[in-house]
Amino acid sequence: MYLSDLLNAKAILHIAEPLSKEQVYRMLVEKICRHCLNVPICDDALLNKILERDQVSSTAYPTGISIPHIRMENFDDTVVGMAFLEHPLDYEDTQVHWVCLVITDKSSSRLYLNLVAGLLKLSQNTPLLEAMIKTDGPGVVHLLQDLKIHVTKDITVADLMVSSPTTISPGTHLKELGDIICTNSISAVPVTDENGIYLGEVNILGLLKVGVPDYLMMLDDVSFLRSYEPLEKLFEQEDILTVGDIMDSDTTSLKPETSIPEAVFAMIQQRRRFYSVVDEQGKLVGVVTAMDIYRKIIKA
Amino acid sequence: MALMLLALFIFGITYLLIITEWINKMIAAMMGGFAIILTGILTQDIAFRAIDWNVIFFLIGMMLVISVMRQTGVFMYLAIKIAKIAKGRPLPIMVLMYLLTTFISAFMGSVTTIMILVPIVLLVASELKITPVPFITTMIIASNAGGAATMIGDPPNILIGSATDYNFLDFIYNLTPPVLLITITSVGLIWLLYRGKMRVSNENRARLMGYNDKNLIKNKTLLKISLVVLGLMLTAFMLQGVIKIETATIAMTAGLFLLIVSDRHKVEQTLAHDIDWATIFFFMGLFMIVESLVETGFINHIASGVMSLTHGEPKTTSMAILWLSGIFSAVIDNVPFVAAMIPVLERLGVLINNPDAMHPIWWSMALGACLGGNGTMIGASANIVAIGIANRNGFRISFKEYTKIGALFALNAIVVSTLYILIRYY
Fold this sequence. Notes:
By secondary structure, chain A is an alpha/beta fold.
């Protein structure tokens, strides 16, 4: 099955005027409901569902595409509406130029995932995007027909990861690491050298471990300790020790082409919620968390 | 003859690997064991039959008992209680820890005792802001001495107990008195060496006194059950002559029973981590290798050699065995040493042909092997484990630093043993 087969040229909009997210969704819903007669819920009911879904988690991806998505009982079909926006919408700091509304059956999650993968891949293709913006609805369908994009292609870590994440160098003092962890509310940071080569990872537990010597970890029980000086004096170490002293250079990383099942498997098996994504040259290209996968794939 | 040389060659290589730990001890012993079969020195059948299953299952049973005892929190409780009873004063803590380590090692083995108690001593020393090194050193010494006191303490005694007809009570009757004497002289040495050397502030002592030991006993019911089971197990060991049940069966019965009544969520953890499978397989390989020396007649040669040197005179033989075991155990792990020496003594028993004359010789080897292990930091497993823990926590104990103290205590122990053997048996 090709991506172009799922499109209806009449549900592809080119919007020149600045509109709100809700207005864009409303226009898409209207088009879809008018031209795809078998959609069980329509108009305001459908719009509300989409907006509710948007509240749960962001549907935007770093490449500037947003893929809001609704699953319906007994729909037994998949329709896609598209809107190309001259004035981008702001999705929590991500600028979106292209909204793809997908309505599908509750059971067809695989098709949906492939659809998302196809759309994400397209969103990275700037010349194609420009061509699609310039043409009209049937033109878009035509362009995509020529590309013969299979919706059988699998989604990978590269499609979900946060590219250009916060990184830290091994020479940084722990104090600065603490600041980065606190201000960004992240529990782990990849460590890279000056060329962006991945060296390892530091996380909040490693930082706390500075105040907990090895022998304490060997005890069966520490309930008798009401206070513990080394832990309380952790901050004194923060100006002396560096990231290189506490980083874990043994951690496994994922590749950009790692499949989603493989990433989920790794996360569950190794009980880690955070992975650095490293390319073949050893360069850090992004980070992916269990939450990313859950929000963007499962919950989507 | 060619087979004997080949066996000796494999034995030599394996022991070299075990002593140097160039590769994992267990892998070295297993490789040696199967090399014996591959080269046709022993058939697989004979090699497998050489494994002393009484020792293997005894070890597994005891590991199960210890694992469950540990879950109760009783060892942590005792150690913390001791620091509080000593009111945070370093020398009393050191002496009491020495005594506790001796006592626990006599029943739980030296390595386990060290793994439980050394981290606590590191914590105590860090709270008192004094170096933990003297504490660790004296606890290593205590653990090896304590293990010498009973049949179920140190691995050399376990091996000897299984290979001979001596039962639990024989060990207590013959080995506990010298260990008590050694404990008294060692505490005296500690007092001489460390008196007035360690100063702590009142504030740091107060921190230690503030430890809340109320919640350390995790499971009172399990503790009661394990103490009853432990008591029954020891009683069974003592009554072995009457009830005619082998040590392995007694230990496995106790271990399996405790495993069943313990927290079922921890069973997997116990089986996977608390049973030291590497040690178990190390012993199996060792039995196979030693058997090759017995079968090819090498052990007979050695025994005849000892006979011609000592003329079968029991007193001289005892002294030779005691000091030889002491010196050898100080530089190599005492387990492979005793494993190889047992058939030598068995053969010697045949040559001397007087069972009564053999008793002091066996006890001499037990004392020499267990106590000599204190001589250097590689003399026994407990030493290596304790020094490893210290190193990982930033306290480097050098070979020289350890040997200065260890050799002194080992010498004290062997001299006391010499006097004991001479006075008691001759």
